[in-house]
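Weekly structure sync, notes
Attendees: PL (lead), two postdocs, one rotation student
Agenda item 3: pending single-chain targets
PL asked that the sequence for the first pending target be pasted directly into the notes so everyone works from the same version. It is reproduced below exactly as submitted, 303 residues in total.
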Amino acid sequence: MSQQYSAIPYTTRPEWLKLRRIGIGASDIAAIIGISPWATPHQIWVAKTTPDAPEPLTNEDMQWGLRVESLIIDEASARLGMTFKRGLLVQNKKREWMIATLDGLHAGDRKGVILEAKKVDAWDWPDGPPPYYQAQVQWQMAVTGYDVAHIAALHRGRRLQLYPVSADREAQEALIEAGGAFWQSVLAVEPPPVTAEDSTFLNQLWPTHTEAAVEIPEGLAAELREAKAGVAAAKQRLELATARVKELLEDADTATVGDDIVATWRTSITERVDVKALKAEEPDIASTYSRKSSSRRFLIKGA
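Predicted structure, written out during the meeting:
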């Protein structure tokens, strides 16, 4: 039986990142179906259509995951008694927009075994790997046509657990349908709607401004102003309720209803550098340790 995928060679991470834009990868699919804790459909869409877009799935924790990946694969290989080829970027021959990067692939016989290495914060997965990891390996099996995968999870950097995952064709068909619809939106340059979770990503996408005005829908403007007014009203209610609780507490530190702790009001001592005085008395030291940063501040007008 011939392979239903082909390998795409690459040598550097920038080259790999560029190649990921040719299709939907395994790390994309959970975000596309809305179950990823790290990225949204809109962020994945931007990553596929904008060459210089920031990576939606990157942070320091994930960078450490990449660093320990080889150690996880080494131990998993020893436990499984298999040799894995590492870091393969593969592409489905029938649906070329289906791609996946495999942490490890054992293809010593006609039935390959996929390995996915994870560094996770949870001490255990009593119910098995989370749905977003399940979706990832199901996508990898859909791309390759293989039936078996193992998720090698290093729990809190101290305990490695292997989780076998079998191919679920029904789940794979649902992922393929969702991935195909999303890929059409990429080709048609039709972005999915933004969500509240996209705000920080948009700050990264456009970190500086130009002096220009953009006409926005009147309904959206009204929604923005109404939301701001609602926040102000909620803040006022919170401040009033807080004052009433403080009045009842006096010098006590804990407010309760039965056995339920509702709030605490405790002494907190903080120590801060008096920057204004430091600049006046030791300007050279202040200048040496000063760091400038830039960010865009979003202000709602007319509300």
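Discussion points:
- Residues 38 and 250 are 43 Å apart (CA to CA).
- The chain has ten helices and eight strands.
Action: rotation student to compare against the earlier draft before next sync.
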